[in-house]
Amino acid sequence: MKSQLRSIIKPTIVLFVICLVVTAALAYTHAITKDKIAERAALDAENARREVLADADSFSRVESIERFINENPELDIVKEVYEGIKDNVSVGYVFLVVSKGYGGDMEVTVGINNKGEITGVKIGNNSETPGLGLKVTDEAFTSQFAGFAPSEPLQVVKREKVKKEEIEAISSATISTRAVTRAVQAAVDMASQLLEEGGKAG
Questions:
Q1: Fewer beta carbons under 10 A from the terminal one: N or C of the chain?
Q2: CA–CA separation, 135 vs 123, rounded Å?
Q3: How far apart are CA 31 and CA 26, in angstroms?
Q4: How do the domains of the chain map onto residue ranges?
Q5: What pTM, to 2 d.p., does this model score?
Q6: Tens of pLDDT along 43-59?
Q7: Selection from 114, 179, 178 nearest residue 149 by Cα
């Protein structure tokens, strides 16, 4: 009986010690890398802002965007807004929008200048399907949004576009296409309100 008990207790203790060592190692690795990961994420976000609003040389976060979301709940996918500054003058806004794609949340960074023109769209973290939904990250797709101020809501079409506000869907990736289009439209709608009131970074 004692022999059987020892045969059970010994491997249990060994397994416990192994789990303890692995957990400690993971905790240590996380502790020494979390700051670097956060720093890298912040740098990537800054680079994305500069890419979509190239006229700006610095960015200041806009606070209290909840007032727009309260008036229009559909704008709750807009998570962060930055005012682009050049020579101490506002040149537009950059929006971080999180839209639901085929594979889950998709981060979309959108730049809009003071004329209401979309200056750039960049897709960030996402889990879209390689070869299909992931094609929304290609410039061939994102360039459809840039260079104009929409005079009507953006619309996804499954044919050749006939006007600027129409966005050609990626074949077999309509959900991903709609996710990006929804994100850009949210940015356009909030930018319109910011520009109308001359909102300043807080």
A1: N
A2: 10
A3: 9
A4: 53-197
A5: 0.80
A6: 889 999 999 999 999 99
A7: 114
Encoded tokens for 186: 């949210």
Q: What is the DSSP letter of 124?
A: -
150-155 own/partner pairs: CB under 8 Å, 24+ apart = 150/116, 150/118, 150/185, 150/188, 153/185, 154/181, 154/184, 154/185, 154/188, 155/181
Looking up tokens 């682009």, which residue turns up? Answer: 84
The letter for the amino acid at 32 is I
Q: Contact, 167 vs 156, CB < 8 A?
A: yes
Give pLDDT, residue 64. Answer: 87
- The CA distances from residue 121 to 94, 109, 144, 167, in Å, are 10, 6, 9, 13
| Beta sheet of 58-61, edge-to-edge order | 58-61, 78-86, 89-100, 105-113, 118-123
The phi, psi pair for 73, rounded to 5°, reads -55, -25
69 and 78 Cβ atoms separated by less than 8 Å: yes
Tokens of 74: 């559909």
Measured distance CA(28)–CA(30) in Å, rounded? 5
Residues 92-106 have pLDDT tens digits of 999 999 999 999 999
The widest CA-to-CA distance across the chain, in whole angstroms, is 84
